[in-house]
From TrEMBL:
The lineage of its organism: Bacteria, Bacillati, Bacillota, Bacilli, Lactobacillales. It is found in: Virion. It holds the Pfam family Phage_capsid. This is Phage major capsid protein. Transmembrane segments: none annotated. It comes from Vagococcus allomyrinae. InterPro entries: Phage_capsid, Phage_capsid-like_C. SUPFAM superfamilies: Major capsid protein gp5. Residues 63-79 have a biased composition (Basic and acidic residues). Residues 128-390 form the Phage capsid-like C-terminal domain. Residues 51-80 are annotated as: Disordered. Signal peptide: none annotated. Its main location: virion.
Amino acid sequence: MNERELRQLVAKRKKAYDDAVGEKKSVDELRALVAELKEARDLLDLEIEARGLENPPIDPDPESVKRARKDEHDERGLDELEDDEVEARYTKVFLKAIRGKNVTRDDEAIFERVKNIRKFESSVDEEGGLIIPVDMQTKINEFRRQFIALENLVTVEMVMTKSGSRVLEKLADITPFASIEEWDEIGEIENPKFQNKKYAIKDYAGILPIPNTLLQDNDANLMAYVYKWIAKKSIITRNVTILVLLKTLPKKAAITDVDSLKDVYNVELDPELLASSSAVMNQDAFNFLDKLKDKDGKYILQPNPVDATKKLLFGSYPVVTLGNKFLPTVAKKAPIIMGDLKEAAIVFDRGVYEIKATDVGGKSFTRNTTDIRVIDRFDAQLWDDDAAIWGEIDLTAVPAGNE
């Protein structure tokens, strides 16, 4: 056996031992597996030592040295590679699978290693799907920054489990620590009001048809086509999910003029939240407020001195405008969400996109495409529901001084 085969043998026997430990095999069985592992390791050491005794070239050229080092690198077993090296190899496996090429056992082993690295578990079917490579995930995140993502306004927590819970003490219910002196006994804080917030990761899926001609294109073009579609689809999906959630906020406000808008920020919201508060609205609401003046004749939406393309409500609160398509006006009432959304809502993000490709299922065969199914996994929950208010602006109202 050559060095490569011996390294694979060592890795195979090490895995057999680890599996046996996990299955709680007897001590005698474990000892036998350890003996087999030591035997394989000894054979590998002897092979390496023997290669070292070979007569080296008198004057090897630099290219030969490079090739030798590369071959030595490639001969390492999968278990000997660092996580980032495995991820780099996985990108090639991913593209091969998307293009419908045969996946080898080595490719499958790389995928299994990546699943362990990412702590990934498919919830779709027995075969599951592929995981987006790290470099494509980075591109998705970069591309998403070009769009309005409500995720940036709420709290996002990465989770490794499909369900769980978190404990919350709402700002309005928080009590201070007690003052103590040296040697004082620290007592329990009086009547803390904790809430148990549960989450359950949900699957959100879509189908992307890929022209077979694009599959024959270079890797960069194929990956760009996929990650741009995923980024746009993911932002829309999460924005809509967050908006549906925020509409359930218990506090509501009817906005008819400047004063009723000020009442929300001056009285209804906790002063501790104002520094991080914003105003999310649709196009109709923005258009209405952009023309609205206070009693001194000053427009209530002021340019943001940091970014002239953006506005500040009352010169203080960042304005985020969404399309009417996703945040519609109903019965001449335009929605506006006011407050600190990072305290109001939380997204529990599984952090992986799952992909599976087919060129025979669905409509892919009849339209000569390869269809990929993309699954995004997350859950959105209200956190401190007193931290934000769902308001509705009466578009038929004509405030004093704005006739």
